[in-house]
Amino acid sequence: MSSISNPRAALVQPLAYAKELLGPLAGKLDIAKSALFYYLLVIYARKAYWHLRARGITASVKDVYLLVSQFVVRLFLRLPSMQRKVTTEMGKARLDIENKLVPKGPNVVRHLTLPEDGKSLDWILAEMEKMDIELTGQSGIWTEGKLSGAVYHGGEELQKIITTAYDRYCVSNPLHPDVFPAVRKMEAEIVAMVLKLYNGPDTGCGVVTSGGTESIIMALKTYRDWGRKVKGITEPEMGAAYFNIKVHVIPVNSYTRKVDLKHLVGSCINYPDGAQDDIAGLSELALKYNLGVHVDCCLGSFIIPFPLSPLGLQLAPFDFRLKGVTSISCDTHKYGFAPKGTSVIMYRTPELRRFQYYVNPHWTGGVYASPSISGSRPGALIAGAWAVMQHIGTKGYLDSCRSIVLATRRIADAVSASIPELYVLGDPPASVVAFGSKHPQVDAFEVGDAMSKRGWHLASVTNPKAIHLAVTRLTVPVVDTFLADLKDAVQEAKLAPSGKGTMVALYGLGESSAVGPEMVGEIATAFLDTLYKA
Ligand SMILES: *Cc1c(COP(=O)(O)O)cnc(C)c1O
């Protein structure tokens, strides 16, 4: 170490100096390298172990197979000849999407800059009228009711009630409760009313959010922060894209369509096929291990809290009556018929809800506190939701629930009894039903495409392939048309040359090949881009 005491040598020959300095450290460096190697090995082994434990051996082997095959496909797609082909095909798909969404032609006026002088209401309404029909030549196709979900309409009268309430609170913002006291009160009351429906305990509480997605995101944040504080979990093994927390995909039993009881979120009812998870089982597990359970009742919303047993349907317990259930999300903007942009996230205790809040006492703009993601929020929507709930009342909801659930049952029964090519997934207890095909010549997606030709906008389910219908008040009067069209569609699908339709192309691709998910992802991204084409 003589040269250390000789700074001049260091200046003249820095490299030699470094070498000399590190020389004696080389051995230690090797030890450090090995230590790092074993450290990483342990970390990855631990992760692999948890993955195996969560997913089981078969599923994990499948996961690895999928990863490897996707990697190979990605390499393959990088070949210049393949790249050219992919670019051409993607270009075609992009154009196809654009033609379906963006109106074109000499008569289409595009409003790309602010008008110099402001326009009148008459002008605005006239433009809206034009825009309504310039893409397809007709407006208001949803009124025919040939839709799955999408429009949870509560009737003509309700529309007037919503717009009147909206008008009154048009400029309100719950971020300023002192300025808009009525809006604060209405939000608190919406939460209270929904808690009552879900048998909330005395300590029950909640927040109104902008929709089911925000409600669920808030629950994830709450449990992540709860886990950190109460259980010391710094690497949560559950989660979502926004929070950098690992997602565990939970296997669903292919027959019952319920989640296998390993993880603590459940749906009631779930979106793809309307099945109800075993929430009581989840609740017991949660109590045993001191964990939380979130129940996604976004879709079940204002259907499942009402008694379905007089209709011959049985729903197992799912709400706060189960002691292990600690939070529930319920979309007022679905079967609650409230205006779009409202949902409620409920918690068993205020202590738990606190983990959802964003509080920043250090901000230079003042102490900032917001109950959810949003800062400013539309008080008008809260007023709309409050008005709707007051106007419909228990009796009104019970009536609509009855008609919707009975229509769903009628469809499920008719499919089982009179369309031998199809089968109903699981045993849907409420307002959603999905059908797969059990006939070798009938592809469920072909049936979906044949239904599209008959004016139906249905959704698709993959794994197994199926088509999905969320029944709404708009569907109730067209159940017979639906069944007649479905029978025809099955016959058409039987004769159709396979693999041609859009549903088949898009969703079929996603599940049938290694390249599928990648390409479908690309197409979905192109779809999002197209939404912003002015
Ligand atoms: C609709 C829905 C949600 C949330 O969707 P938003 O469109 O954000 O309201 C969540 N879970 C299920 C099961 C749903 O059906």
In short:
This protein has 534 residues and is an alpha+beta fold. It has helices at residues 7-12, 14-22, 26-77, 80-101, 121-133, 156-168, 181-197, 212-231, 279-289, 350-354, 379-418, 444-453, 479-495, 502-512, 515-531, and strands at residues 205-209, 265-267, 293-297, 325-330, 343-347, 358-360, 368-370, 422-424, 432-437, 459-461, 466-470. The protein binds pyridoxal-5'-phosphate (PLP).
Description:
- The chain is an alpha+beta fold and 534 residues long.
- It is 49% helix and 9% strand.
- The protein has helices spanning 7-12, 14-22, 26-77, 80-101, 121-133, 156-168, 181-197, 212-231, 279-289, 350-354, 379-418, 444-453, 479-495, 502-512, 515-531; strands at residues 205-209, 265-267, 293-297, 325-330, 343-347, 358-360, 368-370, 422-424, 432-437, 459-461, 466-470.
- Residues 1-12 have low confidence and may be disordered.
- The structure holds pyridoxal-5'-phosphate.
- The site of pyridoxal-5'-phosphate has 12 residues, from helix 8.
List its traits:
alpha+beta; Aspartate Aminotransferase, domain 1; Aspartate Aminotransferase, domain 2; 3 domains; 4-stranded antiparallel sheet; 15 helices; sphinganine-1-phosphate aldolase activity; sphinganine-1-phosphate aldolase; transmembrane helix
